[in-house]
Amino acid sequence: MDVPRAKCLDLFAGSGGLGFEAASRQAEKVTMLELNKEAHAQLAKNVSTLKADNIEVLNKDSLEFLKNSGEPYDLVFIDPPFRKGLLDDVVNLLESNHWLADDALVYIEAEKELELPELPSHWHLHREKVAGQVRFQLFTRQTL
């Protein structure tokens, strides 16, 4: 799946690097979620400065947001705070509340020693890399 025309969800956006990169590659829509008020304010300022009409920045808790049903996204970035045990809930909510398009890509960035929760059987590891203390994994979602 190509980034152009994709709908992207950036959970735990932080500085927004992943979401801004997707927007720069012509994603149709990027939704960034950041709970920290200061980080959210900086993201909103950056979006305004860049005149990035395809980026929406929400000052919300990612888990609370995912508890509702939503529109399916083509590309989801998951970069939760380290050592908080949030990944299992995020994965379950993405699947159970229909946040993922049938052929979605899911990017997970986590501490390298973290053992991933049991992932859905239709998530297939596409690429993996370790740099320093961080493990990057890209999964393809292939539904039946």
What does this structure look like?
- With 144 residues, this protein is α/β, with parallel strands linked by helices.
- It has one domain (7-141): Vaccinia Virus protein VP39 (Rossmann fold, 3-Layer(aba) Sandwich), CATH 3.40.50.150.
- Helix content is 26%, strand content 34%.
- It contains 4 helices and 7 strands, in the order E-H-E-H-E-H-E-H-E-E-E.
- Strands 3-2-1-4-5-7-6 form a 7-stranded mixed sheet, sandwiched between helices.
- The longest helix has 14 residues, at 37-50.
- The chain is globular and about 40 Å long.
- The model has no long low-confidence stretch (mean pLDDT 93).
- This is Ribosomal RNA small subunit methyltransferase D.
- Its EC number is 2.1.1.171.
- It comes from Vibrio ishigakensis.
- Keywords: Methyltransferase, Transferase.
- InterPro entries: DNA_methylase_N6_adenine_CS, RNA_MeTrfase_RsmD, SAM-dependent_MTases_sf.
Q: What best-fitting shape do the alpha-carbon axes yield? A: globular
Number of helices: 4
In CATH, the topology is named Rossmann fold
User: Main sheet?
Assistant: 7 strands, mixed
pLDDT average, as an integer?
A: 93
Q: Please state the oligomeric state of the protein chains shown.
A: single chain
Secondary-structure-based class equals alpha/beta
CATH superfamily: Vaccinia Virus protein VP39
Give me the Rg, rounded.
Answer: 14 Å
- Tally of extended strands? 7
What is the CATH class designation?
Alpha Beta
Total number of distinct structural domains: 1
Query: End-to-end distance, in Å?
Result: 17 Å
Strand content: 25-35%
Low-confidence stretches: none
Give the ordered list of helices and strands.
Answer: EHEHEHEHEEE
What CATH architecture do you see? 3-Layer(aba) Sandwich
Function: Specifically methylates the guanine in position 966 of 16S rRNA in the assembled 30S particle.
Keywords: Methyltransferase, Transferase
Catalytic activity: guanosine(966) in 16S rRNA + S-adenosyl-L-methionine = N(2)-methylguanosine(966) in 16S rRNA + S-adenosyl-L-homocysteine + H(+)
Family: Belongs to the methyltransferase superfamily. RsmD family.
